[in-house]
Amino acid sequence: RTQAEMAHTCRGTINLSTAHIDTEDSCNIVLSNGGRTYHLKANSEVERQRWVTALELAKAKAIRMRNNQSDDSGDEEPASQSDKSELHSTLKTLSSKLEDLSTCNDLIAKHGAALQRSLSELENLKLPAESGEKIKAVNERATLFRITSNAMINACRDFLDLAETHSRKWQRALQYEREQRIRLEETIEQLAKQHNSLERACRGAPGLSSSSTGITSTTKGSVQSAKGEASDEDEETEYFDAMEDAPAFITVTADPKHHRRSGSNLSGASEGHPEDWNLEDSVFESSNQSSYNESTCKDLLRKKRRRTRIPDKPNYSLNLWSIMKNCIGKELSKIPMPVNFNEPLSMLQRLTEDLEYHELLDKAVKCESSTEQMCFVAAFSVSSYSTTVHRTAKPFNPLLGETYELDRLEEFGFRSLCEQVSHHPPAAAHHVYSKRGWTLWQEITIASKFRGKYLSIMPLGTIHLEFHSSGNHYVWRKVTSTVHNIIVGKLWIDQSGEIEIVNHKSKDKCQLKFTPYSYFSRDVPRKVTGVVSDADGKAHYVMSGTWDEKMECSKIVQSSHGSTSTEGKQKTVYQTLSPKVLWKKYPLPENAENMYFFSDLALTLNEPEERVAPTDSRLRPDQRLMESGRWDEANVEKQRLEEKQRAVRRRREAEAVEALEEGKDYEGYIPLWFERKVDAVTGELLCVYKGGYWEAKDKQDWSMCPDIF
After folding, report:
1. Residue 38's domain spans which residues?
2. Residue 16 and residue 455: Cα distance in Å, rounded?
3. Which PANTHER family has this protein been placed in (predicted)?
4. Closest residue by Cα to residue 596 from 418, 340, 380, 297
5. Distance from C-alpha of 328 to C-alpha of 179, rounded to nearest angstrom
6. Could you give the angle at the alpha carbon of 124 between the alpha carbons of 119 and 127, nearest 5°?
7. 395 φψ region: left (φ > 0), alpha (ψ -120 to 50), beta (else)
8. What DSSP string describes 265-286?
């Protein structure tokens, strides 16, 4: 079989040279090799015998290959035309050396015979006069023999050196190809095992709840308390239980008819209307009131005439494995990638895209209670992942000094600025000011690792959010994103981990759990749960939903301790009022599947604008060419920009060495619009906005901007 066929059909491998071939009955065949056993079934006894014969012949062939220590090329061909040319040239050179050796051998035999005859004649001489002439002839023959022998020795030496050089080269190449083949076979085998496990899980799905999952039920709530059994076929595959390490609590919806409003500050239910619990609050608005942002913003977008589509994504084929096989274990930001893997946005623009649901923060400004405000901040932190569910393409790595602005002060009340402040490791600083009462800033470093089957993306750094009127200062970090099926299958992305949001003024906390996807979980995919508690640890709200669709908030009326789980953890039962939707994802625009699954905001991020800085991502030529569908030109331009950046980095490194030799300090790259400071709240060193950008834009004075494009 070819490698492409094996990628879709192979269920594993077995070494035939050491395998045992047995027959159980008239139709079954058993292949065993150590701890691995395969049971094969033929349709008839005749077909079984044909398979046994073929396997025995293959086993004999494998044994011969092992004994001869040679590889059977089979139906494989040299990897490329250059490999064929190099092999042909080497064989031609070796053949020429062999011909030289053969010629030298003939000459040695010929001159050796002549020398022997001359010596024989010398022995038979009687006349002294003739002896001098014969001795002279012997000397000439001996000289010719010595010259020929030297030529023979030199030719042998050349042949030996050439053979040793190419032998080492071939050994290294052969070892490399063996390692690559083993690595690919292991990857395909693991994928085949996972596929087989999934098939068996699907076949056994109707009985899954009774055999592998236990349910703890209450009046109007339920929780999963036992793990689904992982497959015993693949011990390396990771399966995540839905409630493992999750907050151990059960949510029960309270009956509002039996709930009396207590003396606490709960905005409680009243007179039999279960949805009235939030109407007294200034921020938990009804559905018709909360539609303000969607309708108003779309009207403003029409007035500004923002674009609503981009050119369709071209359908270019690409050999993924030929690129990825050399990337295993490497830092993704250091791997040269063609634009085929990208989307026409930079990482700075993707960072700005987190503001798509900025209206959640506008609503949070109106909150009088810090715990209520925390609910909206938590919903905002989850909403930033909603755009990633279909976005498996990689954004462009920003060049050092690249910036991106999003000025929506008149439309939405905020303006945003990002700058790439470091290249290795890649780090971006972000600052957002809203005239509606909040400021957000962050410095994010992206760490990513390609592991063969999946790609892990780990954002490092903290996000800060401060509300102007109350002074509430919230801090949180992002979770890990994982792109699956890198080699085989359809790409899909998942979010997993925990987010702890802390209000450093009031000490309120919100613990959010992003449940990783599991084959055997009964939970809804992409589930997010959490609890909002005050400084004393008292729980006030339960957060629930999915990171790709919506988040809901339920006010806690009463809490009590439930039964102990199988892991020894005691569950807390929260009695809550009816949940309210805080955030719901906007539908994607029409034809989004052909426009990289961009949202309405994402479609406008790379729209050309006047008066932006010359370092703005909108002016990046390779990204613009890709958006226009000219991918070949974009690849050429991308290589030019990257080489230009490498040249600048080498110059800085030389300047640093020179400064070190002279005993001077070298500051390195200094960001244009940000500066490093120690955060007064967290004590961390991070880049914060130092001002000057919007003033420079008003004056159109970009003289301090470097030439990076």
Report:
1. 18-64
2. 34
3. OXYSTEROL-BINDING PROTEIN 2, OXYSTEROL-BINDING PROTEIN-RELATED
4. 340
5. 13
6. 115
7. beta
8. S----BTTBTTGGGTTSSSS--
Q: Which of 635, 654, 673 delimits the end of a domain?
A: 654
The widest CA-to-CA distance across the chain, in whole angstroms, is 149
The encoded tokens of residue 232 equal 């015993």
- Residue 228 domain-assigned? no
Q: Per-residue pLDDT for 250 more than 50?
A: yes
Q: Tokens for 276?
A: 């009235």
Cβ pair 374, 382 in contact under 8 A: no
Query: Counting Cβ atoms within 10 Å, is residue 124 exposed (0-12), middle (13-18) or buried (19+)?
Result: exposed
Number of domains, the chain: 2
Is residue 457 classed as helix, strand or coil in its secondary structure?
strand
The residue assigned the tokens 């001159």 is 111
- Does residue 159 form part of some domain? no
CATH number of the domain to which 472 belongs: 2.40.160.120
d(CA 417, CA 404): 6
Asked which of 604, 628, 654 is the last residue of a domain, the reply is: 654
219 domain-assigned? no
CB atoms within 10 A of CB 339: 23
pTM over 0.70: no
Backbone angles phi, psi at 344, to 5 degrees: -75, 55
Place of tokens 């949940």: 579
Q: How many CB atoms lie within 10 A of CB 317?
A: 6
The bridge status of strand 20-23 relative to strand 527-533 is unpaired
The string of DSSP letters for 541-571 reads EEEEEETTTEEEEEEEEEEEEEEE-TTSPEE
Residue 574 in domain: yes
Rounded distance, CA 142 to CA 308, Å? 94
Non-local CB neighbours of 406 within 8 Å, separated by 6+ positions? 352, 355, 415, 416, 417, 605
User: 269: Cβ–Cβ under 8 A, 6 or more apart, which residues?
Assistant: 254, 256, 259, 261, 276, 277, 577
How many other CB atoms sit within 10 Å of the CB of residue 56? 12
Average per-residue pLDDT for the chain:
78
Residue-level pLDDT at 353? 95
Task: Answer for the pair 530, 554: CB distance below 8 angstroms, yes or no.
Answer: no
CA torsion 365-370-375-378 (nearest 10°) is 80
Highest mean pLDDT among 128-142, 333-347, 497-511: 497-511
| Interior angle at CA 166, CA 162 and CA 167, nearest 5 | 110
pLDDT in tens, 481-517: 998 887 777 888 999 999 999 999 999 999 999 999 8
Torsion of CA 427, 432, 438, 441, to 10 degrees: 10
Packed helices 81-123 and 128-203: angle between N→C axes, nearest 10 degrees: 160
Residue 630: φ, ψ to 5° = -100, 75
Answer whether 111's CB lies under 8 Å from 148's CB: yes
Q: Region 590-614: what's the mean pLDDT?
A: 94
The per-residue DSSP string of 474-515 comes to EEEE--EEEEE-SSSS--EEEEEEEEEEEETTT--EEEEEEP
For residues 661 and 472, what is the distance between their CA atoms, to the nearest angstrom? 49
Class of residue 459 by CB neighbours under 10 A (exposed 0-12, middle 13-18, buried 19+):
middle
- Is the separation of the CB atoms in 78 and 87 below 8 Å? yes
Instruction: Give 545's contacts (C-beta < 8 A, 6+ positions apart).
Output: 382, 527, 528, 551, 552, 583
Q: Quickly tell me which residue has 């004393």 as its tokens.
A: 536
394-396 and 342-346 strand pairing:
parallel
SS3 of residue 536 by DSSP: coil
What is the amino acid identity at position 471?
A: G
Question: Please, are residues 543 and 529 in contact by the beta-carbon 8 Å criterion?
Answer: yes
